[in-house]
Amino acid sequence: MKLVVLLFAGLREATGESRLELELCDGATVADAQAELLRRFPALRERRYAFALDHHYATGSTAVGSARELALIPPVSGG
To answer: Coil, strand, or helix at residue 39?
Structure first.
């Protein structure tokens, strides 16, 4: 299955990508997607972020299922 990954702010800067596609096996979880992203972009290991799967917050154990989009959301900063 194909999953579009969106990266914002410092995550975009760390990878040089704002949008990319992952090819995942059926039954994949968010953690599987994260593992592939860390393989491609080791700089993400130094970053903190949350996940949103089709606009809903998700954890590593969340099944990707029929989702189309995974967003990596950096911590909010500023004032």
So the answer is: helix
